[in-house]
Amino acid sequence: MFGIESLSGPAYASVLVGIVLVEALLLYVGYGALTRVAGPSVKDAIRGD
Amino acid sequence: MGMSIGMIALFVGFGLLVGILFGFFGMGGSFLVTPALLIFGYESTVAVGSGMAFVFGTSVIATLKHRDLGQVDYKLGVLMIVGTATGIEVGKEIVVHLQEIGLAGSIISVVYVLLLGGIGAFVTYEALGDGSGGGLEPDVEADADADDTEIPEVAQKIQSYRVPPMIELRGGITVSLWMILLVAFATGLLSGFLGVGGGFIRMPALFYLIGVPVPIAVGTDLFEIIFSGGIGSFLYAMEGGVNLGIVAPLLAGSALGARVGSAATSIVDEDEIKVYFGVMLLLGSIAVAIQEVGNAFDVEVLRTVSVVVILGAALLVAGAVVYSSVESLRAPTPASSAAD
Lengths: 49, 340
Description:
The complex is a heterodimer of chains A (about 50) and B (about 350). Chain A is mainly α. Chain A has one helix at about 10-45. Residues about 130-145 and about 335-340 of chain B have low confidence and may be disordered. Chain B contains twelve helices and two strands; from the N terminus they run ααααααββαααααα. Chain B has helices at about 5-25, 30-40, 45-70, 75-100, 105-130, 155-160, 175-195, 200-210, 215-240, 245-265, 270-295, 300-330; strands spanning about 165-170, 175. Chain B is an all-alpha fold and about 350 residues long. The chains are: A mainly alpha (about 50), B mainly alpha (about 350).
C-alpha cells in the first residue's frame, strides 16, 4: 500500500507513522477551515437564533 | 484497500464516536478500538497496532485543539512522560515476575477491574457529592488561578510538600518536581502492569493528586499520548501491525469527533465531565469483568456481550457529551467562542 512495502522495517515503520501524522495534521487543518466557515451558522442554529 | 464503501462509512462513524470521547476525556482508544477491530475479524497484532496508530493520530488532533484553548501544560507533560516511562518499565518487570510464578493473568484481571470500577465510582461519587459547580470558562488561562477550595484535598496535601525544585504549572499551581515525578511513576507503573494506555489513570491523577484543572488534565494527558501512541505505532508498524486501510477512515471520523470532544471540555460543566468519565469507567469495568469471566470459562457469548456493553457505553456517553454541549450552548449565559 502507498508503494512503501519495499522499505526495510524501521524505514517502513517511520514512513507509516509519518503518513498517519500528516493525515492527522491535514484533517485538523481541513476540519478547522470547515468549522470556521460553517461553525457560526451551526451555533446559531443550535441556539435557535 | 479492499474495503467496501459500507465498511469505510462504518469506520468513519466509529472513529467519530471514539474521537468525541478521546477529545473529551483523554482516554478511550485502547478501550474501544482494539476490541472492535477484533470483532471485525482482524488478527490481534493488526487490531492492537492499527488501534495504536489511530490513537496516535487522534491524540495529535485533540492536543492541537486543546492547545488552541490554552489547555495543554507542556512542562508538566514532559515531566509526566519521564516519570511514566520509568514506571511502565517497572510495571512490566512486575508482570514478568508474576508470570514466572503463574499469577500474572488472574492478578492483572482483578486489579484492572477493581481499578476501573474504583476510579469510576470515586470520580462519580465525588462529582455528584460536590455541589460547587466548578465549571471552567472557555479561556482557561484567563481565569485559571483556581482557589484552594477547587483543589482536591489530596492534591492540596501534595502541593504542600515544598521539596525544591518547585515547578509552576498552568492553573496557577506550584508543585514539587519530585511529587510530579512520583505521581507520573505511579501512573506509569499501573499502566505498564495492566498493559493499557493509561489515560483513565493519568487524567484523574493529574486532577486529584497534582491539582491541575480537569480541562488542562485532559489536554496534558493527550499531549503525553502523542508520544506513547507514536512509539507504540512505530514498534507495531515494524512488525506489520499497522493497516492504513483501517487507520485512515477511522482517523477521518475521529478528527471531527476529537474537535467536538475537545471543544466540549470548555463548554460542559467540570463536574459533568467527571460524572461522564466515572460512568464510562464503571461500565468499562463491568465489560472487562464479563470479558474476563468469558475468557476464564471459554464462553464466547460473554466476550461478545462485553464488547456490546463497552460499545453501548461509548455510544451513550458520547451522546450525553454532545447533548450537554448543545444544552450549554442554548443556555442564556455567554457560552463559547471556543466551540468551533
